[in-house]
Design goal:
heterodimer, A: about 325 residues, three-stranded mixed β-sheet, B: about 850 residues, two-stranded antiparallel ribbon
Chain lengths: ~325, ~850
């Protein structure tokens, strides 16, 4: 029913795989440790106070002592901590808001209820729910929304960036290690906010070039009869909403399916991309993700099999 | 202690003074009752029921999230429930409950007999109940709001939420907010003007300070919320386009205005808790809290700074480095006043042996949880860290530490502390301990793991999650913790219910506390103070031998109010700074109109919800009748005026010092005048929110809207007219006791000029309406709303002026006519100033 789990899959903020992620993780550790120390210190003071008060008046501090304690421990020390935190924060903000140079790979992510459209304007690639990028090279990620506010969040790579109507936001993604990084929409965006996952795949350079070459190509023309029949069904039943480059299907309501078979999941992380799941999804996507834009397709059994066979050729 | 605040011999129920304060009999009497104690009791009970509802919702959410891919709740239901959980806890429980508790405790604590505007108390209560029921009725139709308690546009716009769900939310919420503002106005005037003689600002209990600060914050925070929810409802119902990017609107305007309310809101909940904990710590250590001035200063500082950090909820929307740094700095600063408070309590504990009764346990639990929630709050202020933690379970953990640890724990502690006073029965200590430890343990089991879940990348507001992401176990633990916490609450409820019947009788001052509420019997008598206590120290019950006046002049004045007046409800008005007696205030007695008015409101909300002209006509009629009934001259008021005159007391106008005290109906000393100032403040904040919206949106428009010379001429003339109205009224009210003819003429001329200016505002709008409509773009929407706002404020002023006029024609010597005129003066000055602000915004 779901994508494979396991270590490394966990979108752990404290297990970063990028420079930006590393900087935030360092900051997070600093804050967590400092916070723990302060908490313990205050609790020790509280315990001491209770104990001293119990022995009062012997163990008690006087009126002036009390005031001094309040001002020093409650005012001056916090003020000093605040100053330190502010300096640390501003330095982190400076690094955090640094934008990528303009000569790097551009990726555009456009939020939809409830999936991600992913475009590579310089490469002429349009895809969905997966961002591919070269590890070790910064990528400029521009985000927009087609409807409501969403938020792009892949914890191991970067903090959140919102997709706000009328605005474009840009961040720099700089994965240092090849790998697959999970994320999901972090701003409540309606009924299926939950089922709006995104995966970032950072490739070694060579594998990235291969991937890009394959994605740039138009859709494969089906060779076997079942898939060819499926292509014809697709043009009738699916083409008004989906695009498959190189065919008559140019719909833009739903995700571009030119290389659907190369993607790991269906429905923005709702189901793993297997034959059975694909067939079930095409037949009735509402069963798995109620409210999503894809209506139940009342296809005959044979047509359904043909369409799925066709979709599986779209590598 | 033989305090004069109690009668020497317990009076029977037929004593005229007791009778005048007693609730009228029967069901009708129940609806007519407006005295603070019964209303506050109902208010607290109602809010507590909403608390239980919100708690059940929380448990449903936790069951759903207990295991991955759970199907206990479907997506739609989950979204509705998390929306209602947040909405209920924030708007229908915490704020109303705190205000209700203050409505009960504050008058006792500051030594007065009632709140300044009891009809407003009742109106706030009824409106809140009906607004809450209105919101909850959405469940009956399966239309519960599902846009989150923060309701971000455009998700909540008509395009993406076409159902009535969000209309229920917007309307129900505005109503609860207006009720909240009403209660705040009341608390401000109560604390400033109705204190016991001798209670200078520096002798006020910390809880009174806390509530004063909070009430002022409510005025400044809730008003923008009412405005912005109104704007969204206009977008949905009237076709305006404030948030539509294509029309020059901006969805981030919603976020700015929402968080300008939303962040202070957190401190609005927290500051009363700080006040409560200070009293509990003080009482159970038998020591004054260390650093009274520091504590007050810290609360004020938190109140002020809380308005400068709203955008830390928006670090991810795409913000400049400078803005991020500013809001991070402001957010970090909060740590300093908070530190001063925490160490104020720690230092107090250091000085004296604490008695560990249940309220004290909750106060200590609060300190632990509040410190933890504060520290994670400081972490979140660090913007790059927030970029990761924001909208994840880390934040959920953080604010539950702040809100459950920081607010619910002190409130439950406060109930253990004050219920013996309220009901005259002690709560059971053993059950109290059980409920504390269950709540404390359950809370930490539920919420501590959430920090971790959040750092593992789990976002908020998801109805389920995949297994294998490391989220399963911490979620299961949180769910178990939530049930332990709920069990603790249940034990508390059992304890309360049990004690109401079988609890040990509470003494008047069972905790040997220092503040005035403990000077009266438990439960307090309806009139609260037989005669008004005189305060000479900050801790009267610890440091004063009695509550009598030492000064014979003051004593004579107070003697006159000992078990009196007998024909009408009244209390003493004092000067703000020193608490010096200034006058005797008339306080209205039982009346049905607040209840009827709230019914009129209910019809109006329903009409707005279902777009029914008939319902809105009926609602308008009832509202108008109830308003007229409300202000209709009452017998008790007449009685008060006559009695004061017959006893040789001055009435109204003469403000000269000296005994006997005047009856303060009019002028700066009166509660009505202060009520007017608060009303003007509310209107000013509302206008400011709209004008700020204008400039915020205008900064993004490609070109300036074209303005006609004709419009400028109309607007300028209108400004001149409005200034004349204010000036005329000022002269008229100053002219007293001038000739009646002159006063009549002045008022008549002012009315005419006011009517003419209303015509000009209408003209300015009609002029626009020919070329464009409110639905054309955001500019059109703003013109429509700003001119509409001005039209309504002018209409309100006209009504007030006409009322003054009627008094003057029928009974020129009646002080109530003067009162209306005096109130109209600051109001019209505000109207003129607000028009000039609108003029500058729209036309220059």
């Amino acid at each position: 029913m779901t994508l494979a789990g396991g270590p490394g899959v966990i979108p752990d903020v404290l297990d970063p795989a990028s420079e930006a992620g590393q900087r935030i993780a360092d900051l997070a550790w600093f804050l967590l440790i400092a916070g723990t120390v302060v908490f313990i210190a205050v609790m020790v003071m509280l315990a001491l106070a209770i104990r001293a008060g119990r022995a009062a008046p012997a163990g008690a501090i006087g009126e002036r002592g009390g005031r001094r304690l309040q001002i020093v421990a409650g005012g001056i020390i916090p003020a000093a901590i605040v100053v330190v935190l502010f300096v640390v924060t501003v330095r982190a903000i400076t690094a955090y808001t640094a934008t990528a140079a303009s000569d790097v790979t551009d990726v555009e992510v456009i939020g939809h209820m409830w999936w991600w459209e992913v475009r590579y304007p310089r490469l002429g690639i349009v895809s969905a729910n997966e961002v591919h990028l070269p590890a070790g090279r910064p990528v400029r990620l521009t985000v927009r929304t087609a409807d409501v506010i969403h938020s792009f969040w892949v914890p191991r790579l970067h903090g959140k960036i919102d997709l706000v109507p009328g605005r474009t936001n840009t961040i720099r993604l700089d994965a240092t290690r090849a790998g697959t990084y999970r994320g999901q929409c972090a701003e409540y965006c309606g009924l299926q906010h939950t089922r709006m996952a995104i995966t970032v795949v950072a490739h070694e350079l060579e594998s990235y070039t291969t991937w890009a070459g394959r994605e740039q190509a138009p859709a494969a023309v089906p060779t076997d009869t079942l898939a060819s029949a499926g292509a014809r069904v697709f043009e009738v039943a699916c083409a008004s909403c989906h695009t498959v480059r190189g065919t008559l299907a140019t719909g833009t309501e739903g995700p571009d399916l030119t290389h659907l078979a190369s993607r790991a999941s269906i429905g923005a992380g709702t189901l793993p991309n297997t034959t059975a799941n694909l067939a079930a999804w095409v037949a009735d996507a509402q069963r798995f993700k109620p409210g999503n834009g894809m209506p139940p397709m009342s296809l005959r059994e044979a047509d359904l099999r043909a369409v799925v066979a066709y979709l599986e050729t779209l590598r | 202690m033989t305090a004069p605040v109690r009668p020497d011999v317990s009076p029977s129920g037929t004593h005229p003074f007791v009778r005048v304060w007693s609730a009228p009999p029967g069901i009708l009497g129940w609806l007519r009752e407006i005295n603070n104690i019964p209303i506050a009791t109902r208010y607290m009970a109602t809010a507590f029921v909403f608390f239980l509802a919100g708690g059940v919702q929380a448990l449903l959410l936790r069951i759903q999230l207990g295991t991955p891919e759970n199907t206990f709740l479907d997506a739609e239901t989950y979204n509705q429930i998390f929306t209602m959980h947040g909405t209920t806890m924030m708007f229908l429980f915490v704020i109303p409950f705190i205000e209700a508790m203050a409505n009960y405790v504050l008058p006792l604590m500051i030594g007065t007999r009632d709140l300044p505007f009891p009809r407003l108390t009742a109106l706030s209560y009824w409106t809140y109940v009906l607004g809450g029921l209105f919101l909850y009725s959405s469940f009956l139709f399966g239309l519960a709001p599902d846009g989150g308690w923060f309701a971000y546009v455009p998700l909540t716009s008509l395009e993406f939420s076409p159902g009535l769900n969000m209309d229920y939310w917007l309307i129900g919420l505005s109503v609860a907010e207006v009720a909240g503002i009403g209660a705040a106005a009341e608390l401000i005037v109560a604390v400033l003007k109705l204190r016991a003689p001798g209670m200078s600002l520096g002798r006020m209990p910390l809880f009174a300070w806390a509530m004063l600060i909070v009430a002022v914050m409510i005025i400044f925070a809730f008003t923008p919320l009412v405005v912005v929810t109104g704007m969204l409802e206009f977008d949905r119902k009237l076709g305006t386009r404030f948030f539509d990017v294509a029309a020059g609107g901006d969805p981030l305007l919603w976020q700015h205005l929402f968080w300008v309310f939303g962040h202070p809101e957190v401190y609005i909940m927290l500051i009363p808790a700080i006040g409560i904990v200070s009293h509990i710590v003080q009482t159970f250590t038998r020591r004054p809290v260390v650093g009274y001035r520091v504590m007050v200063g810290a609360m004020i500082a938190i109140g002020v700074v809380s308005f400068a950090l709203w955008a830390h909820h928006m670090f991810a929307v795409g913000m400049s480095m400078a803005a991020m740094s500013f809001f991070a700095a402001a957010s970090l600063l909060i740590a300093i006043p908070s530190g001063l408070q925490v160490f104020g309590w720690i230092a107090t504990l250091w000085q004296g042996r604490a008695e560990w009764r249940t309220p004290m346990l909750f106060a200590a639990g609060f300190i632990v949880l509040f410190v933890l929630g504060g520290i994670t709050g400081v972490m979140l202020a660090s913007a790059p860290f927030d970029a990761q933690a924001h909208d994840s379970y880390f934040v959920v953990a953080h604010f539950h530490y702040a809100l459950i640890g920081g607010v619910i724990f002190p409130l439950v502690g406060a109930l253990h502390y004050w219920l013996p006073k309220f009901r005259g029965r002690m709560l059971d200590e053993r059950l109290g301990r059980w409920s504390f430890w269950l709540m404390f343990a359950g809370f930490n089991v539920a919420f501590l793991p959430m920090h971790y879940t959040g750092l593992l990348g789990m976002p908020r507001r998801v109805y389920t999650y995949e297994p294998g992401l490391g989220w399963d176990l911490p979620n299961l633990i949180s769910t178990v913790g939530a049930f332990i916490l709920a069990l603790g609450v249940l034990v508390f409820v059992v304890n309360v219910v049990r004690s109401l019947r079988h609890g040990e009788r509470a003494a008047d001052n069972p905790w040997r506390a220092d503040t005035l509420e403990w000077a009266v019997s438990s439960p307090p008598p309806v009139y609260q103070f037989w005669s008004l206590p005189v305060i000479r120290t900050r801790h009267p019950l610890w440091e004063q031998r009695d509550l009598d006046a030492e000064d014979p002049a003051l004593d004579a004045e107070l003697q006159a109010m000992r078990g009196r007046p007998e024909g009408w409800r009244s209390t003493l008005i004092v000067s703000i700074k020193d608490g010096h007696p200034e006058g005797i205030s008339w306080i209205p007695g039982p009346t049905i109109w607040p209840f009827v008015l709230s019914l009129g409101f209910l019809l109006l909300f329903t009409a707005a919800l279902v777009n029914s002209l008939w319902l809105s006509a009926a609602g308008t009629l009832i509202t108008a009748v109830a308003t007229a009934g409300w202000f209709w001259p009452t017998r008790s008021q007449q009685l008060a005026i006559d009695e004061m005159r017959s006893r040789g007391y001055r009435v109204a106008r003469d403000r000269a010092r000296g005994s006997p005290l005047p009856m303060a109906l009019v002028g700066r000393g009166s509660t009505g005048w202060w009520g007017m100032i608060v009303l003007i403040a509310v209107l000013a904040v509302a206008l400011l929110s709209l004008i700020t919206s204008y400039f915020y949106l205008a900064s993004r428009w490609a070109e300036r809207p074209v303005i006609d010379t004709m419009e400028i001429i109309m607007a300028a003339t209108c400004a001149a007219f409005l200034l004349s109205v204010a000036g005329l009224l000022h002269l008229t009210s100053r002219g007293r006791p001038g000739s009646t003819t002159r006063r009549r003429l002045g008022l008549a001329l002012a009315t005419l000029l006011g009517l003419a200016s209303l015509g000009l505002v209408w003209g300015a709008y009609a002029y626009r309406e020919t070329s464009f409509t409110r639905a054309l773009d955001a500019h059109g929407s703003l013109v429509y709303t700003l001119l509409g706002f001005e039209g309504l404020t002018i209409a309100g002023g006209l009504i007030l002026t006409i009322v003054a006029q009627l008094w003057l024609w029928r009974r020129p010597e009646d002080p109530r006519g003067d009162a209306a005129t005096e109130l109209a003066v600051p109001y019209w000055f505000f109207v003129a100033a607000s028009w000039i602000a609108v003029f500058v915004t729209l036309y220059l």
